[in-house]
Every structure is written in C-alpha cells, then in structure tokens.
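Hi U.,

Before I forget, here's the chain from the pilot set. I'm dumping it here mostly so it's searchable later in email.
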Amino acid sequence: MNIPFKSVFVAALFAIGITVASQAQNSKPLKLGYTSVDYILVQLPQSKQIESELKAYEAQLTKQLQDKNKELQDKYAAYQKGEALMAEPVKADKQKELQDLQARIQEFQQNAESSMQKKQQQLLQPVYELIQKNIKLVADENGYTYIFNSDVLLHGPEGDNLSDLVLKKLGVTPAAKTTTPATAPLAPKATAPATK
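Structure:
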C-alpha cells in the first residue's frame, strides 16, 4: 500500500501539533528524539548470523528450484526426442505432464519467496523486539517523550540522535560514521529545475 508522502507528512505534523498542545498543559516538557533501527540492526552481532542463515536458506531453496527446472528440461528434451514416434494420446499425456510440472515449479517459486519472507521475519522479530526495548530504556533514562525512526525524519539535530546510545545500551560499540543515519541519502535526489 503506497500512501502519498504529503498525506504522511500532514498526518505527522497534525500528530505532533496535538502532542505539543497536550504537552503544554502538562508539567513535563516535550522532548523529541530519533534513531535509526536499520543502523542499529546492521551493527549488532546477531545481524551477521541472521544474514548467514538467510543466505543458507536461500541457497537451499535455489538448489531445490534448480533441481526442479533440470527435471523439467530433461523431460522436455525426452519429449522432443520421442515426439515424432508418439501416438496422440501418449503425446497429450506427456504435454499435460510437462505443463503440470511447470505449474508446480511456478507454485514452488511463489511459495519459496513467501517462505523466505517468513524466515526473515522469524529471525528478525526477536532482534527488533530487543532494539525496541533498548530504545525505550534509553528514552526513559534520558527524558525523551517520543522517539521517531529516522526513516521518516527529514531533519533533526544530531544531539537528538539516540542510535549510538541504544547501541551502547545493547553492549555494542558504534562504528565510526561518515554520514549520519538520518541524513544519509537513501536514493538519488531529484534535482529541481533552475529558476530565474
């Protein structure tokens, strides 16, 4: 489901506006921070293990698919070789067998993609829960009211980036950064036409 950026932006501004208004009535000051869950995930030791398991699982599925494709190729080659000598009912049976095998291969491909997604989710879910728990701990310890994921943040002061604090809370020494997670380009930026 694609939600237009403008709608998300307006909804976020509306939510922040309501939050600011309600916080103005409370004695606790509003303090916003942000973090990059992806940045944290990549630096965790578990991420290498998860990546390794996913690659092994993908290799297993790929091998099975290659075996099925080879079986189809072999059966098709045998069909072509003997097609001229086959009676019509035998030819029709062989064609149906080839079509059924091709349909099973396509179904296997779809199931394999779904299976990969489920495997990835199964492996990542506990890590995401651990990250979330530590984000909450860091937010509570540092008096933050709300923490946003930098994937939806257009700009924020580096002092409110809690990614390295969360990593430290997880016992991981943050890697040296060349660009900040919130400002690192995710895709090439479109250039606006020059105005006069």
